[in-house]
């Protein structure tokens, strides 16, 4: 009888947890659903619907047609795509190499260097804006894409995440390869790199989202309208029109997040694997 009662209590607690999580998930999705709803509302360009509705009265593709009729959105997409792809390639590669070096490497000052890398996580972007601006200004790289993806070479969080992941992989793999005469780069690319799928996918998603949504740094270094990224284009559009074209603004915002959603849907399963294997979730 006591066992049956425990089973009922356990089942009831799980049901309550699921219901609470569903409610929380729905509440988190409401702003996104409302954004899409306003994007499909033609009358929202005249007056925002009140009270807010999750399903528009007059669904129409009008706002989305206007968004794509303007060629500037394609330029902004291309600019953001170039910057984001370069940032992902540079950031993920450097993080994997750095994490491997700090995890499996044996060299003097390794602990001190790792502490310095972790120390960069405590410095927010705002104090670094002026020094970085001055540095790229002296290099003559302002108003180009270089300042937007070169900082991805040093990613303290990515290096830390990769180190935690490589710590879980056995050292015997490296020792066996060394006995066979393999170099360090050979060991990394032939032995360990094929095992980094989960953590690499996680870094791709995190770096992609960070680079795609970056606003302040591109605003500082880019002045040419033809080099605007998606966040800059969305901000300039909003600044010019205010709330007078709410439907068009929301349609533009919806279009801007599509690449992030697609990427996350394809790679989301790797995030759980990497968290489990990196020791961040015990």
TrEMBL record:
Lipid bilayer topology: Multi-pass membrane protein
Residue ranges of the TM segments: 15-40, 76-100, 112-133, 145-166, 187-209, 245-267
Entry-linked InterPro entries: MetI-like, MetI-like_sf
GO biological process: transmembrane transport
Cellular component, GO annotation: plasma membrane
Domain ABC transmembrane type-1: 77-267
Principal location: membrane
Pfam family, one: BPD_transp_1
Subcellular location: Cell membrane
SUPFAM superfamilies for this protein: MetI-like
Keywords in alphabetical order: Cell membrane, Membrane, Transmembrane, Transmembrane helix, Transport
Family, per entry: Belongs to the binding-protein-dependent transport system permease family.
Protein name in UniProt: Sugar ABC transporter permease
Source organism: Pullulanibacillus pueri
